[in-house]
Specification:
Elements: H1 4-17, E1 32-40, E2 44-53, H2 55-61, H3 70-78, E3 80-84, E4 87-88, E5 92-102, E6 108-119, E7 126-132, E8 142-148, E9 151-154, H4 171-174, E10 182-189, E11 193-194, H5 209-222, H6 229-248, H7 254-263, H8 268-295, H9 301-337, E12 348-350, E13 356-358, H10 382-393, H11 398-409, H12 413-443, H13 446-449, H14 453-479
Helix pairs in contact: 1-6, 5-6, 5-11, 6-12, 7-12, 7-14, 8-10, 8-11, 8-12, 9-10, 9-14, 11-12
Length: 481
């Protein structure tokens, strides 16, 4: 019995290391993948269209689509604009089918298959323009192919799907997934197809393999027919580990928190306060976004995450601006005092350092050095600490979101909320530990750096770093929108 904690930790560690099953949607739980395969004949154009929706889009659309797929294929036809020598074709849906498959975390995925046909005069030379605007606001794989049957097609598109019909994505292309939405085809009498091998797309962030495997394991435990106490405890521990691993990835304000706590003489309790705020914000964000995604069918989750990333970056930048303004006010205050000033006993004054204190002693030749003197440096303000914590947990993790929605779908809502809280606690533990470590290291510096030029420049440098990181976070999020 005394060894059971070691057994649990070993099981969680194994779940982190053992690779999970290959993801059906390697571009993420928000992804919508599309394939339009064109066949051009002398008198018409036919299209075999496939739309493969990951777990979250399937959950959103399930209440708005018919089970035959007719409405979905009508929407695909509406958003597929094809012109022949400037004249737009009118599509007829000749076949439609909609199927569901088991996804991860107890959530299903869906696959819509459509056959479209339209008359077209291609017996002589012609120019065909193709533009696909379906699910333009969604992330995912977008692929176009084209072949000629009785006509010659000079095309920048491949003749065959490189993803085997959205069933097997090439690993070497996942870092830069296909995002082909338009093409120009030149048609001439004859036979054969002059096609390219493919087309480049936009870069997508990849989740480390060990983290993806652990997420797959957790979702498998969540969707188990029966959640035993052992599985429940293992799932909570794995959620803690996943939250910690997620916090170790780039982002989440670790650099910002480090600079702030060092430059503002943060205390251990300040680091703990930031960690607690991260937990509350992350957990609340997952719960609120989960509610929004289940009630607003057309809400693009990745767009919401992008805007939350912008807000997070703006909050961090605001903290940096506040630090610079506070530094400027303190320098003006020091200059107004002059190099030598005295205070009568019991005199109380405010250094505008977010704290008031009383003195019963004289200051002779006392130099504040921008607030870095030991005991007189600026302490972190509550609003700034709150801003950092909110910024660190404002962007919910998609994996935590899938766990919550999967638990709701399986009737295990309370268990899902518990896992989300554990996920947030894991994130907060890493951020808090990083803050405590840096505060401890910072406390060892003054004896060696006191009077050094670096100590005098540190407040301005850390403020500038916080501002630049915030602007960088906001800019990176804007690029994804």
């Amino acid at each position: 019995m005394k060894r059971w904690p070691l057994v649990l930790c070993a099981a969680v560690f194994a779940a982190l290391l053992v690779p999970g099953a290959a993801a059906a949607h390697p571009l993420g739980d928000f992804s919508v993948n599309q394939l339009h395969a064109f066949t051009l004949t002398p008198d018409r154009i036919e299209v075999a269209a496939i739309v493969d929706l990951a777990e979250l889009p399937t959950l959103q659309e399930r209440s708005t689509v018919d089970q035959t797929g007719a409405a979905g294929c009508a929407a695909v036809a509406r958003d597929l604009a094809v012109t022949v020598d400037g004249r737009r074709l009118s599509w007829t849906v000749v076949r439609h089918a909609l199927g569901y498959a088991a996804g991860t975390g107890g959530l299903p995925t869906s696959r819509l298959s459509c056959g479209l046909s339209a008359p077209a005069a291609l017996s002589g030379p012609a120019t065909v323009e193709v533009v696909n605007t379906r699910y333009a606001d969604r992330i995912g794989w977008r692929e176009l192919t084209a072949v000629g049957d009785g006509v010659r097609v000079d095309s920048p598109l491949p003749a065959r799907s490189v993803s085997a019909g959205l069933t097997a994505y090439p690993q070497d292309l996942l870092a830069s997934p296909l995002d082909v939405r338009r093409a120009r085809l030149l048609v001439a009498p004859g036979t054969g197809t002059a096609a390219a091998d493919g087309a480049p797309g936009s870069a997508a962030a990849a989740t480390p393999g060990w983290l993806a495997g652990a997420e797959s394991t957790l979702r498998g435990w969540l969707a188990a027919p029966r959640v035993t106490p052992l599985i429940g405890v293992l799932a909570v521990l794995l959620a803690l580990a996943l939250g910690a691993g997620h916090a170790l990835l780039p982002g989440h304000g670790k650099t910002v928190m480090a600079a702030y706590l060092v430059g503002r003489r943060g205390r251990p309790r300040d680091a703990v306060a930031v960690g607690a705020t991260v937990t509350l914000t992350h957990t609340g964000g997952v719960l609120v976004l989960g509610l929004l995604l289940t009630t607003a069918a057309r809400l693009a989750g990745e767009t919401v995450l992008g805007w939350l990333g912008v807000v997070s970056g703006v909050l961090v930048a605001a903290v940096g601006i506040g630090m610079l303004r506070g530094l400027r006010r303190r320098r003006g205050f020091d200059h107004s005092h002059g190099p030598d000033h005295s205070h009568s006993p019991g005199h109380s004054h405010d250094h505008d350092h977010d704290h008031d204190h009383s003195h019963s002693h004289s200051h002779g030749g006392h130099d504040h050095h921008g607030g870095q003197h030991h005991g007189h440096g600026p302490r972190p303000g509550r609003l700034s600490l709150l801003g950092l914590g909110v910024a660190g947990g404002l962007v919910p993790s998609p994996s935590a979101l899938v766990v919550l929605l999967g638990a709701v779908a399986l009737g295990r809502t309370a268990f899902g909320v518990l896992l989300v809280v554990a996920y947030g606690l894991g994130m907060a533990a890493v951020l808090t530990a990083a803050g405590l470590l840096l505060v401890r290291l910072r406390d060892r510096w003054p004896a060696r750096l006191r009077g050094d030029r670096l100590a005098r420049l540190m407040p301005a440098g850390t403020a500038a770093l916080v501002l630049l990181v915030g602007l960088g976070l906001a800019g990176r999020a804007l690029v994804t929108l």
